[in-house]
Amino acid sequence: MADFFQLAINGFAIGGVYALAAIGFVIVYEATGVVNFAAGQFVMFGTFAGVAALVNAQLPWPIAYAAALFAMAAFGVLFFLLVYWPLKLSPAVTVIIGTVAISITMQNAALLVFGSWPVRIPSPLEGMTVEVGGAVVSVHALLTMAITALLVGGLWFLLHRTSFGIGMRAVAQDVQAARLMGLKVGRVLAMSWVLGALLAGAAGLLLGPMWFADVNMGDPVALKAFAATIIGGFGSLPGAVVGGIFVGLSEVLGASYISSAYKDLISFGIMIGFLFVRPQGMFGEKIQDRG
Amino acid sequence: MTILDARNISKRYGGLAALTDVDMTVSAGEFVAIIGPNGAGKSTLLNVFTGLVVPDSGAVLLAGNDVTRHATNRRIKAGLGRTFQHGRTFPRLTVLENVMVGAAICPTLGERALRESALQIIEQMGLADIADNAIRTLSYGHRRMVELARAVACNPKVLLLDEPAAGLNSAEVAQLVKRLAHLREKHQLAVVLIEHNMGMVMRLAERIVVLNFGSKIAEGAPAEIQANPAVLSAYLGEGYAHARV
């Protein structure tokens, strides 16, 4: 039982990271209609922003995390200006191919700058554990869960309780009507890229101490985040959270109780099952109910 | 005082002249209706006012300022509010949230004041008991009323209404007319109304502008328009000019 508890905490922690990556992906998709194929590389950039600030520049923890998140926000603005804005009138496929191109560029840029050797980011809570009901649990895992909960709560507050967030949801539903309400649509769209980049950055920073920082880490994260959005319901924020945790739990529990060789098969198998049985996911709406 | 002034507006889509040299003014507090057969250019003219369509030539003045080159959000801020032909409320937001989006451009409103002012408008429009319902759960009539509430959330000087009565039943039309009268009285609001419901137009409008094939063919008080031969032939065809609407 203690083992199970320990594994469940780890599953929740890694699931929280997938959830953050998935929310970053969903927020951009909902607001701009762009399926961002570079979403995994956004997370990888977040991890390496942590590497640059913590390992290379040796900055103190709080400053390093703030600097890394600031860099991610700036990257969101840059991505909006250089990739999304010039292509905004192009067909969706063109924009998607654009994000694929940027994804490859990002991966290779990281390879050039940081090299191919995996790096380990230490956690400020390195090696710290607590005993909960007989189970030894990593404090970093608990903190990851807490930060995920805090970010999800903050995001919910932004989107539902502030006029800016309500404006963001309005733009996502009808750009032209939002413009006629006097909203500055360009600014709202830019902000959704910034939020997407920040959430991916947070996911990357939290993931750093759990995995090695590796320039190839973006694709597996993106696939897990994608599975999370399918399972939770494409375009749904609560769905992304529940889907992310679901994928994290099934991965960790599956690896321990079934086989670690098949842990990816388990989470993707569940995703495929959902596509067959309930393609709208747990929280998604059927296509005919949307609008 | 003239609040909205459109001068020599022309707009072509390829070979189609959507608007040709249209002049139109609206005074503060005035109720003007634009009528005309389908495809006459009525909605295009509203889109020129709001900046969704840039005219090929001509100028739009709002409270004396030339806004022809201004983006939509600046015009809305300067005092325009509008509703759409088919109702364009945000389906997955609540009634309150929809009205808050309309109120978001009001100057100097903090978060709390903005919510309060939106709630006040909802109350005035008789929507208080559905304030927290998502739009997609509401009837069409309610949605149109929410759209109206949203359009007046920031006290516009001119309200542009694109067929607000389309799809409403007679009780809902009566309700709409009542709310409009109340809003005008309270805010000295000028209204530009596009409507096919002639009963509503004749009852509410102080002045009527008639468009046909993108040109203004008549303008005047409702009684004059009803007797105008050019209007009759535009609606009923040649040979029926002796008939009355």
Task: Give a summary of the structure in a few sentences.
Chain A has 291 residues and is mainly α. Chain A contains eleven helices and two strands. In chain A, β1 and β2 form a beta hairpin.
Fold and architecture overview:
The complex is a heterodimer of chains A (291) and B (245). With 291 residues, chain A is mostly helical. Chain A has a single domain (2-289), classed as ABC transporter involved in vitamin B12 uptake, BtuC (Orthogonal Bundle). Chain A contains 11 helices and 2 strands. Chain A has a two-stranded antiparallel ribbon with strand order 1-2. Chain A is globular. In chain A, 49% of the residues are buried. Chain B has 245 residues and is of the alpha/beta class. Chain B has a domain at 88-155. Chain B is 36% helix and 26% strand. In chain B, the strands form 2 sheets. Chain B has a 6-stranded mixed beta sheet with strand order 6-7-8-3-9-10, sandwiched between helices. In chain B, strands 2-1-4-5 form a 4-stranded antiparallel beta sheet, with helices on one face. The A-B interface holds A 161-163, 166-167, 169-170, 173-174, 176-185, 291 and B 50, 52, 72-73, 76-77, 82, 84, 88-93, 97-98, 100-105, 111, 114, 136, 150, 154.
Chain-wise SSE layout:
The complex is a heterodimer of chains A (291) and B (245).
Chain A: H1 2-32, H2 39-56, H3 61-84, H4 92-114, E1 129-132, E2 135-138, H5 139-161, H6 163-173, H7 175-180, H8 185-207, H9 218-232, H10 237-257, H11 263-277
Antiparallel strand pairs in A: 1-2
Helix pairs in contact in A: 1-5, 1-8, 1-9, 1-10, 2-3, 2-4, 2-8, 2-9, 3-8, 5-6, 6-8, 9-10, 9-11, 10-11
Chain B: E1 2-13, E2 16-27, E3 31-35, H1 42-50, E4 57-62, E5 65-66, H2 72-77, E6 80-83, H3 95-103, H4 111-124, H5 140-151, E7 158-162, H6 170-187, E8 190-194, H7 198-204, E9 207-212, E10 215-220, H8 222-227, H9 229-236
